[in-house]
Amino acid sequence: MSVTETTERSKRDRTYSITELCREFDVTPRTLRFYEQKGLLHPARRGWTRLFSYRDRARLQLILRGKKVGFALEEIKEMLDLYNLRDGQLTQLRIASTKMRERLEALRKQRVELEDAIGDLERTVVVVDGMLKEREAAQPKAANS
């Protein structure tokens, strides 16, 4: 076995405590327990201690990426669970590709809608600020009358 293979194997055999993963990914222990409850992570147990595997760590990284772009936990779980099929990940990759393309399109649509809303709000701010300026300019005159 080469040094690279040995290093890779030791990485894969490594376990992580809940504290280590929380620190590395800036999540709370409650978050990890929630993902475990939802079947997204499968830590081993040593008494009360959870030991997360290299695979759990990789799954957590994918969960957080998926959430960041707006996937629901159910969608993330569906994509992750397809990894267990023995088809060389073809099904997982096909479904992930389809879901990612759909999400990308939804995000693009949201971006257009958000840009429209920002434009509307910017125009409204100009109008309201103009009205405010007029009222403030007229106020001292009304007070002196």
Please tag this protein with its features.
6 helices; 7% strand; Multidrug-efflux Transporter Regulator, Chain: A, Domain 2; 145 residues; DNA-binding transcription factor activity; mainly alpha; elongated; DNA binding
Descriptive account of the structure:
The protein is mainly alpha-helical and 145 residues long. The mean pLDDT is 89. The chain has a domain at 1-71: Multidrug-efflux Transporter Regulator, Chain: A, Domain 2, CATH 1.10.1660. β2 (44-46) and β3 (49-53) form a beta hairpin. It has 6 helices and 3 strands, in the order αβααββααα. The longest helix is centred in the C-terminal third of the chain and has 55 residues, at 90-144. The chain has a 3-stranded antiparallel beta sheet with strand order 1-3-2. 74% of the residues lie in helices and 7% in strands. InterPro entries: DNA-bd_dom_put_sf, MerR-type_HTH_dom, MerR_fam. It holds the Pfam family MerR_1. Residues 15-82 form the HTH merR-type domain.
